[in-house]
Write a structure and sequence with these properties.
Elements lengths: L10 H25 L6 H24 L13
Helix pairs in contact: 1-2
Length: 78
């Protein structure tokens, strides 16, 4: 599958972003529970994890939007 061009994203980028979001969710959940399990309710932890995961997905897509098919940041296609 071809890498996306500068200022474009494709399905591959989206699925890779979902992987980043899922890994982020797992790590933030574990960090929150291990840090102080009595500090947060389960609902608060889930909301926190959801927002951080969404931010990770958006950040990944923005990074891919700003790179060309060679992986160069803020460089248009030749």
């Amino acid at each position: 599958m071809e890498r996306s061009k500068f200022l474009q994203v494709n399905w591959r980028d989206f699925f890779k972003g979902l992987v980043v979001a899922i890994l982020t969710a797992v790590l933030i959940f574990l960090q929150t529970i291990v840090a102080d399990p009595s500090l947060y309710s389960f609902k608060v932890v889930i909301v926190k994890v959801g927002w951080v995961s969404l931010a990770a997905l958006i950040a990944y897509l923005l990074k891919n939007l700003a790179t060309n098919s060679k992986g160069e940041l803020l460089t248009s296609e030749q």
